[in-house]
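Build the 3D complex.
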Amino acid sequence: MSLFRTWRRKRVLRRARIDDTLWRSVLAGLPFLAGLDEAELARLEELVLIFLHEKEMHGAGGFHLTDEIRLAIAVQAVLPVLNLGLDLYEGWVGIVVYPGEFRVRRQELDEDGILHEWEDELSGEAWPGGPVLLSWEDVALGNTALEEGGEPGYNVVIHEFAHKIDMLTGEADGYPKPHRDMDAGAWARALESAYARFDGMVERGVETLLDPYAAEHPAEFFAVASEAFFTDPHALKEEFPGLYEQLTRFYRQDPAARLPPPEGSRPGPRR
Ligand SMILES: [Zn+2]
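Done.
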């Protein structure tokens, strides 16, 4: 990291503050943060301050961003890099928040040279080198209690930021570059074999913890597995132990060790 950036970030931390009541209310609304200790919460707060300073968040489609919404998004975006640092989010600045699902125009040229155009309705998207787009309705849904219609393991912010981490080496391919202290072969094998097993389960119609949508592409599998890793870690550890273990090395966190196992029986398929 450059000296200038280090200096600038220190200056941000000296000058910026998060209102204590607001900070506590945002944390209370995100139950998967419950196991973080004092030092981790202090680091989370520092990263959030720098993140809010370095990224630009805008409302779109008439959506008005409040301080609470900005903070809630920043906290969830920063959680995956708590022990990795914000350099993983380098090379882009924009975060665009829509009130609900939004439409994106798509174009694709097929092998015969015919241009196909269509519209996708999305809850979130990450563009390589560009912004992250989010639907606030879906962000909020991920943090809604089960009895109020929430879905365990669903977190659109972590999903899109996992794509961003994956995109550090170009297009998202589902194989983010392992850290130097990791066994690169074990990392690739864990991702590959979990994806292959998951894909087979979806094809056979076997119920699985992760959204069947994740079978579309290894990049989607990595993003969906990352959502579960942080917000429903016990379930992920049980269903994909090898993948869970490698993700603890990749994210340098062990959410299942810090969070209590969920009480009672699990609901059916998630989304
Ligand atoms: Zn995705």
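The chain has a mean pLDDT of 92.
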